[in-house]
């Protein structure tokens, strides 16, 4: 197996996730796209851990999984609060900062 | 080696199709279920990369816990169950050139840096004991910080979502 086949797969997943963050209006779907991006990073870390024969990449991947779980918990809490106050989770409607 | 490459190709194709469906589907629940395809594909790739502990953690945390959170979020925010045409921005088309340019830049850099370098096949594999030696050795301070982050996230999520 080549190193590059994993790195290309990870780059493709990352770019699809970036497209999702730009294109989606529903806040839950934006959080899902962020999960795609974090998974792409994890794949990179594990591939490099095998290439370099070091356990550092595995450790970082585990930490990223834990941080992603915390991020989803707080993110969905925020989305829920926005929904309760505004009756919508469309990100285009949250435009107070536009002045 | 050939079997591994065939397995990689099949799993990678499933992952890419799943990821594309996550960002293009018009149904929030379908997006969550396609995300399961991508996450389990990632777990299978970790097995191919001889990282079995990461693969099991991926299944437990992502497919077990995070997906349940997403489905709860879909339910509690009363997103329309079924087809919903209002999921994309008006400028969604702008995302396509941005993603393509980003992928082209990354591909050039990757092809230039790693070319046809092979992954080592006979190296001493990393086992779970080495990972725990790392976590409770040089990476102990980040581990403590991470436990406080998780505690803060749990309390924060309860405070945010509580009805008072």
* Helix coverage percent of chain B: over 70%
The sequence of SSEs of chain A as H and E is HHH
The description of the largest β-sheet of chain B is: none
User: Which class of secondary structure composition applies to the elements of chain B?
Assistant: mainly alpha
Note the gap between the termini of chain B.
Answer: 59 Å
Q: Which two chains share the most extensive interface?
A: A-B, 69 and 90 residues
Characterise this structure.
- The complex is a heterodimer of chains A (99) and B (164).
- With 99 residues, chain A is an all-alpha fold.
- Chain A has a domain at 26-88: Helix Hairpins, CATH 1.10.287.
- In chain A, 79% of the residues lie in helices and 0% in strands.
- Chain A has helices spanning 3-23, 27-52, 56-86.
- Chain A starts with a helix and ends in a 13-residue tail after the last helix.
- Chain B has 164 residues and is mainly alpha-helical.
- Chain B has 2 domains: 1-84, Four Helix Bundle (Hemerythrin (Met), subunit A), CATH 1.20.120.1200; 125-164.
- Chain B has helices at 2-24, 28-48, 52-76, 95-114, 128-135, 140-161.
- In chain B, helix 1 packs antiparallel against helix 2 and helix 2 (28-48) runs antiparallel to helix 3 (52-76).
- The radius of gyration of chain B is 20 Å and the shape is globular.
- The chains are: A mainly alpha (99), B mainly alpha (164).
- Chains A and B meet through helix 1, helix 2 and helix 3 of A and helix 1, helix 2, helix 3, helix 4 and helix 5 of B.
Descriptive terms for the model:
heterodimer, A: 99 residues, mainly alpha, Helix Hairpins, 79% helix, elongated, B: mainly alpha, Four Helix Bundle (Hemerythrin (Met), subunit A), globular
Gist of the model:
The complex is a heterodimer of chains A (99) and B (164). Chain A is mainly alpha-helical and 99 residues long.
Helix and strand arrangement:
The complex is a heterodimer of chains A (99) and B (164).
Chain A: H1 3-23, H2 27-52, H3 56-86
Helix pairs in contact in A: 1-2, 2-3
Chain B: H1 2-24, H2 28-48, H3 52-76, H4 95-114, H5 128-135, H6 140-161
Helix pairs in contact in B: 1-2, 2-3
């Amino acid at each position: 197996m080549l190193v590059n086949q994993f790195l290309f797969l990870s780059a493709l997943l990352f770019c699809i996730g970036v497209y999702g963050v730009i294109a989606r209006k529903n806040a839950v779907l934006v959080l899902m796209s962020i999960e795609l991006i974090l998974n792409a990073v994890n794949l990179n870390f594990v591939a490099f851990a095998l290439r370099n024969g070091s356990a550092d990449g595995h450790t970082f991947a585990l930490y990223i999984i834990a941080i992603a779980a915390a991020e989803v918990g707080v993110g969905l809490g925020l989305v829920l609060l926005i929904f309760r106050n505004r009756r919508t989770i469309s990100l285009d409607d949250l435009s107070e900062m536009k002045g | 080696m050939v079997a591994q490459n065939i397995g990689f190709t099949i799993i990678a194709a499933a992952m890419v199709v799943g990821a594309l469906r996550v960002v293009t589907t018009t149904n929030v629940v379908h997006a969550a279920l396609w995300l399961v395809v991508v996450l389990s594909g990632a777990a299978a790739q970790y097995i191919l990369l001889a990282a079995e502990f990461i693969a099991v953690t991926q299944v437990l945390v992502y497919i077990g816990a995070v997906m349940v959170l997403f489905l709860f979020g879909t339910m509690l925010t009363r997103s329309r169950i079924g087809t919903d045409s209002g999921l994309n921005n008006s400028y969604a088309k702008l995302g396509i050139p941005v993603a393509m340019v980003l992928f082209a830049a990354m591909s050039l850099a990757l092809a230039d840096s790693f070319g046809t370098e092979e992954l080592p096949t006979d190296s001493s594999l990393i086992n779970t004991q080495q990972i725990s030696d790392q976590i409770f050795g040089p990476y102990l301070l980040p581990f403590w910080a991470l436990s406080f982050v998780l505690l803060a996230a749990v309390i924060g999520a309860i405070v945010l979502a509580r009805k008072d």
